[in-house]
Amino acid sequence: MAPMLRVGLTGGIGAGKSTVATRLAEHGAVLVDSDKIAREVVEPGTPGLAAVVAAFGEDVLAGDGSLNRPALAAKAFADEESRRRLNGIVHPLVGARTAELMAGAAADAVIVHDIPLLVEGHLAPAYHLVVIVDAPMEVRVRRLVEARGMAEADARARIRAQASDAQRRAVADVWLDNGGAQDIVLAEVDALWADRLVPFEANVRLRRPRPPMSPVITPYDTTWPMQAERQLARLRQAAGDRLLRADHIGSTSVPGLPAKDVLDLQLTVSSLDDADAIAGAVCDAGFPLLEGEWVDDPQEDGAAPWPKRVHVGADPKRAVNVHVRSPETPSWRLALLFRDWIRAHPQERDAYAELKQQLARKHAADGTIEHYADEKQSWVNAAFTRAEVWAAQTSWTP
Ligand SMILES: CC(C)(COP(=O)(O)OP(=O)(O)OC[C@H]1O[C@@H](n2cnc3c(N)ncnc32)[C@H](O)[C@@H]1O)[C@@H](O)C(=O)NCCC(=O)NCCS
Ligand SMILES: Nc1ncnc2c1ncn2[C@@H]1O[C@H](COP(=O)(O)OP(=O)(O)OP(=O)(O)O)[C@@H](O)[C@H]1O
């Protein structure tokens, strides 16, 4: 797929997707609207409409031969099996048409895909960014009944047929609360466009990594594992079969450890040739390659350095470093060992946290940051020795 920026926009019925989508389109986004496509594929004379009639009967047709939508909705949302049957007919047609529209967009487009069933269809990893619009259930029901004239029972039946809040939270890179007045959410959308989507698009198109993070240490963020999982899901989908495994490593992977707000991820491939073979797809998925020859320091004197490839996330609001390594390099194993060891040793974690804070204070005071990494590394090197003892005692394997 061409490397345009793909934004998945979703939310429960009545939450305000169209409101957000319309504003993004005003800024210049190319809208792909699944509800609209779902109507087009069942217009009079289409094979889609014929299939729906064959499955649900002539009484879902209006007098003029077009689809009687309320009649079909009454059947479709009455039970799970009927809805599945309808989805089975309509979704493949919608999918094919969506792919066509996306393929036709300009290379510098920001595509906003307004797709009600993104979560239900497990489609999140296909997007560079997933935006969820939310409003409390009762507010949504009221809007649908008052502004759209929907029967309350129908509104609730559709809400029941959709994903839960927790399922939406898990895939949301951006959560827009539209429970209040419209201008509040629209101001958030304006900022999202200017501060995130515009630079994100340019970074992906130009294969330009985002600027490096300042080395500020933040308290542990309990959403880091979930955020890492979302990025890993994108990377797995982009990299395909050559990817042997994908892991969250580094300080943000250790519960309770304060860290720089950067997600470190490790992609395992069998060789550097495979790292190069997946590089293009990884770039287009939103993780441009960091140019240069990257090596991890060997721990033993005289050992050859361990080469790797490094990709850096293009999203200006989410720092991600992707280390692509072969399991033959000791640093591949150490990344996983260090994580598992420090997760299992809260006292070591706290000592490490204390050291990082001390170094940060010291180097903030004298204005240097270069020595920060060196001093930290000497603690880590000593910790590796303790971790190896633990690995041997517990028969740890990566
Ligand atoms: C049943 C139909 C005819 C009812 O038409 P109606 O004009 O009342 O609703 P409309 O299509 O505008 O959809 C409004 C909202 O209902 C919800 N909804 C629609 N279909 C579904 C579904 N299959 N499952 C869950 N929610 C759905 C979505 O939140 C959507 O935004 C229509 O929704 C339909 O054909 N649905 C199947 C296709 C589909 O899944 N569309 C949604 C995205 S592709
Ligand atoms: N913040 C708001 N305050 C009041 N009304 C709102 C607000 N946001 C949206 N609405 C109204 O609520 C209704 C639903 O909003 P909208 O059409 O944007 O939701 P949607 O998520 O696209 O719905 P659907 O799932 O049916 O496509 C509309 O009539 C809209 O005008």
TrEMBL record:
Keywords: ATP-binding, Coenzyme A biosynthesis, Cytoplasm, Kinase, Nucleotide-binding, Transferase. Belongs to the CoaE family. The gene is coaE. GO terms for biological process: coenzyme A biosynthetic process. GO terms for molecular function: ATP binding; dephospho-CoA kinase activity. Coiled coil: none annotated. One of its GO terms (cellular component) is cytoplasm. InterPro entries: Depp_CoAkinase (IPR001977), GrpB/CoaE (IPR007344), NT_sf (IPR043519), P-loop_NTPase (IPR027417). It is found in: Cytoplasm. Pathway: Cofactor biosynthesis; coenzyme A biosynthesis; CoA from (R)-pantothenate: step 5/5. ATP binds at G14, A15, G16, K17, S18, T19. It catalyses: 3'-dephospho-CoA + ATP = ADP + CoA + H(+). Its EC number is 2.7.1.24. This is Dephospho-CoA kinase. Catalyzes the phosphorylation of the 3'-hydroxyl group of dephosphocoenzyme A to form coenzyme A.
